[in-house]
């Protein structure tokens, strides 16, 4: 039976050797639904800025911008992205530089696939345990810390009522909230406000114009819910 690919976590591979890059890319695609590749540090950094991968797997010696320089650039503002270095070098100076950059691992070439696989899956498990996000598809997630919705690393701007609605739905993914529950949550500061199903229907229509189709599921006769991947 074919294992289901990892959909909620993306990975960026930076490797200048064409054959190794293609081999590793094919291997990563066995496990990850979203795999980005780069042939140099500059290209990898550009992809990092555009796609915000959860894991970066990078060589050190690359043209234009080497791996350690690229990681240092990322670490100026980002201490969270998980980074694994692969290198043909095991000298003390490189290792000491790497330690300062908060890496998950420093793997020496040639890479053993079992070792790489274990490291990747351990990293995926760590991300899932510490992440405060819930993904509804491969590119859209709700950030619990900030109460914001993101698509392709860009925040989807929400009005106050839209934000309150999504906070409620994401508070218990897979749970169906009735129109009455939603109305009472949105208007809890106005205790005497009379329930209006039309108000909820109108809100759903408005918010769906800026959200991907099927983000909010309408369960006939019961209410609305979010179904994460």
Enumerate how many helices there are, as a single number: 8
- Low-pLDDT stretches are none
Helix and strand composition category: alpha/beta
Give me the Rg, rounded.
Answer: 22 Å
Query: What is the spatial order of strands in the main beta sheet?
Result: 2-1-3-4-5
Share of residues in strands: 15-25%
| Sheet having the most strands | 5 strands, parallel
State the oligomer: single chain
The end-to-end distance, rounded to whole angstroms, is 20 Å
Query: Count the strands?
Result: 11
Give the ordered list of helices and strands.
EHEHEHEHEHEEEEHHHEE
Helical residue percent band:
25-40%
Shape: elongated
State mean pLDDT (0 to 100 scale): 88
């Amino acid at each position: 039976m074919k294992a289901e690919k990892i959909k909620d976590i993306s990975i960026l591979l930076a490797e200048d050797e064409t054959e190794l890059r293609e081999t590793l890319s094919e291997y990563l695609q066995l496990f990850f639904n979203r795999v980005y590749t780069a042939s140099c540090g500059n290209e990898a950094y550009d992809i990092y800025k555009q796609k915000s991968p959860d894991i970066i797997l990078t060589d050190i010696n690359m043209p234009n911008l080497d791996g350690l320089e690229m990681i240092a650039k990322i670490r100026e503002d980002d201490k969270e992205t998980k980074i694994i270095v692969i290198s043909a070098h095991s000298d003390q100076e490189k290792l000491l530089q790497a330690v300062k950059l908060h890496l998950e691992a420093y793997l020496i070439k040639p890479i053993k696939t079992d070792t790489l696989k274990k490291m990747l899956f351990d990293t995926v498990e760590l991300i899932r345990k510490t992440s405060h996000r819930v993904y509804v598809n491969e590119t859209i997630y709700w950030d619990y810390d900030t109460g914001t919705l993101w698509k392709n690393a860009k925040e989807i701007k929400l009005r106050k009522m839209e934000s309150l609605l999504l906070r409620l739905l994401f508070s218990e993914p897979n749970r169906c909230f009735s129109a009455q529950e939603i109305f009472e949550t949105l208007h809890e500061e106005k205790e005497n406000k009379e329930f209006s199903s039309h108000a909820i229907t109108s809100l759903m229509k408005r918010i769906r114009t800026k959200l991907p189709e099927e983000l909010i599921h309408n369960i006939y006769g019961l209410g609305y819910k979010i179904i994460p991947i």
